[in-house]
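Retry 2 of 3 after timeout on previous attempt. Resubmitting structure tokens to design endpoint.
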């Protein structure tokens, strides 16, 4: 019998700090699609578990990632989620100017200072690698190359002839629940019958399967694999859902924004034309509303104090168990 993680780890400031470093500080994290920054000076930025990161395309066409923090007194280089900064990144506080490669070009109006060498005040770089157009970053300088992490996903997509298309739309939601509540909900189909009546009807008698391969959880409904729903739901540790269908894909990043709060960033990648995208957005909004209601109710109960631990089904919740064991190791 696998007992669940204790309720006190959900929404707790200490747990958030430990997971921020032990999970999000040590793995490859999805930042965005390379097509979201097509030209020189185009940037996208994200707050990933309190790690404030940006990627920007240089004049040489290469994408580079940096912490979104100025080396003077920690001002932000960009604000918002996407934009174009022209030929340089300019700090929003006192105007220090950096090249798109991260070199400090001018400490604007700073004046002379003994032993101040601008070459030592370049932006703090972050490793970035691209897989099938998706840009990942890691704060771990010793992390193994991204290819190893995505290998099971690459094999799955290649084996099915599925592709990852270009971005067509974005959506974001913020939920009042711990990121783990949302991730665990994502990792099982046990709740579909109770929480998602329309999806449940669509799946009909299809057999719902969940399995884990390396850092990847694969979920699929066997028996509906020739309609537009044909595809596979992948979930890559620690926070990335990649749902690939016949006519497109949907990427879903679930990131803690503080203890007991999660932000969902959806990127719709669509090859099926306007109609297919419209349908995907409607279905996604409905499913998110349904999941948000149940996850926020679960969080309120976890915080209320009566419930301490529960138990996981070996039939339906194998991937939840795998997730909780990995989280548990960080809190030992
Ligand atoms: S903090 Fe960036 S210029 Fe001062
Ligand atoms: Fe759900």
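Retry 2 succeeded. Sequence:
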């Amino acid at each position: 019998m696998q007992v669940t993680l204790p309720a006190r780890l959900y929404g707790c400031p200490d747990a958030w700090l430990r997971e921020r470093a032990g999970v999000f500080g040590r793995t490859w994290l999805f930042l965005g699609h390379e097509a979201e920054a097509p030209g020189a000076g185009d940037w996208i930025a994200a707050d990933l578990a309190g790690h404030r990161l940006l990627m920007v395309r240089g004049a040489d066409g290469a994408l580079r990632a940096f912490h979104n923090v100025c080396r003077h007194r920690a001002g932000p280089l960009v604000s918002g989620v996407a934009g174009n900064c022209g030929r340089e990144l300019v700090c929003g506080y006192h105007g220090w100017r950096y090249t798109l490669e991260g070199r400090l070009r001018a400490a604007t109006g700073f004046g002379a200072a003994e032993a101040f060498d601008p070459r030592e005040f370049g932006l703090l770089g972050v490793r970035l690698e691209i897989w099938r157009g998706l840009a990942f970053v890691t704060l771990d300088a010793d992390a193994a190359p991204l290819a190893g992490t995505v290998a099971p996903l690459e094999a799955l997509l290649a084996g099915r002839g599925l592709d990852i298309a270009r971005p067509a739309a974005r959506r974001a939601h913020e939920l009042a629940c711990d990121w783990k509540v949302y991730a665990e909900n994502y990792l099982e189909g046990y709740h579909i019958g109770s929480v998602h009546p329309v999806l449940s009807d669509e799946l009909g008698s299809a057999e719902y399967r969940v399995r884990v391969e390396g850092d990847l959880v694969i979920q699929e409904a066997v028996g509906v694999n020739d309609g537009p729903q044909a595809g596979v739901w992948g979930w890559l540790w620690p926070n990335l859902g990649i749902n690939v269908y016949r006519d497109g894909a949907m990427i879903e990043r679930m990131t803690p924004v503080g203890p007991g709060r999660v932000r969902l960033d959806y990127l719709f990648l669509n090859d099926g034309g306007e109609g297919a995208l419209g349908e995907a957005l409607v279905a996604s909004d409905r499913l998110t509303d349904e999941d948000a209601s149940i996850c926020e109710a679960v969080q309120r109960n976890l915080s209320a104090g009566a419930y301490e631990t529960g138990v996981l089904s070996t039939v339906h919740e194998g991937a939840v168990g795998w997730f909780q064991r990995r989280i548990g190791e960080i809190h030992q």
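Attempt log closed. Residues 33 and 287 are 23 Å apart (CA to CA).
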